[in-house]
Amino acid sequence: MTRRTGRVEFSFLRPIDGNETRQNNRVAELLGASLTFGPEHLNLIHSDWKPFTQEAEMIGIQEGLEGNQSVQLDWVVADGSRYIGYETKVAASLGKEQLAAEAEELERVNPTGENILCVVTEHYAEPKTVERARKSIASDTELRWISWYDIASTVADISATDIQQEQVIINDLLYQTFDEEGYLMQFNGLHADPAGREEVMEQQQQLVNLVHDVELMLRNQPLKRYRQSRGADIFCEQSQQQDKLMKRSYQNLVPQWFMFPFHPEETDGFPGKGKRSATSPSIFGQLWSEFVYVGIRMGPYFRNKHFDSLTTNAETFEDIARDHGFKLFTGWKKWKIVNEYEVGEIQEVLEDTQSIGEETHKRVLFGQKIDASSEPVDEVVSQISDLLVEMNHISWVEHRPLFYPTVESE
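The chain above was modelled as a monomer; its predicted structure follows.
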């Protein structure tokens, strides 16, 4: 096989800015440089693979193998008789036909050896395209997948004792690359009372960062954040009165309340019909406070079956809250939370059929109020992530008829 002699034309002074080719080339060049000292980086990134040996080397980056320019893998590592080709995606779509052609290309240049095609994407879990391709491609090439986030997380956890001295600066550059592109933890805490335009904008960004980091922690858990195919992925309070105030005060330039819903990984969206009124483990954040609310939301104002489940099973809901240390929070039609009830009050509140579903009880949330300004912030993210996993299990696995009555009736 012809070894790689060319040079990729890019500069570390040129920002990646989400560009797939620049990201691919930078990471591949750095990993290639690391391989000249040893296979430590690849062995840590692919810790569940057969270990790479000292023979491993980068033999191709964004170029055809042995002169074949019709099929170009993003990068290829040769380790003796084992060849590993990488197909990386940032935002572009992934096709089975492309993967089939790349698997065939690996077998063409390495017909008697072991071949692996590793797909790298921004997904938190293996894309269905990879699963379908694995079943349909008639090839001896093994198809594997890894997330950019998993690679970045591995790089972030590497210490100087894990790699050779010459690889430390390479790891620092990899870390910088992934950090700049948003693959690493970004949350720095919320302000108790943000003042001034800069702090307000920072507070808004930190709310988004918090959810970003929670997603990172949940990427191997059985739930995921809801993403709309069109429009914003963040539900927020934006009233007509707020629209008017926006003209007079910077404090109303952005919504005051945000809601970030999650749903079971096994479903494509919210179980049952609807979005804003659906049951889901969720994070509620407010712009002017350091507190966020993490809980299981329901909509008795919007859904009669939610109303019936809450009022009929009030005692059971209070028992569940007591067992798991939850409170009951209620609010308006939008996302603003206005009432907080202790465990001993929950049954009485839910049994009041004249109140539930009306005024400040149009939405209900079983959960906890978290101080998101406390240190260390990574423990805040971990606490919220653990709560969401617990709430998904409680509502979707243990007590589905109570929390998802519309699903049970379908």
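Residues 196-409 form a domain with the BirA Bifunctional Protein; domain 2 fold (CATH 3.30.930).
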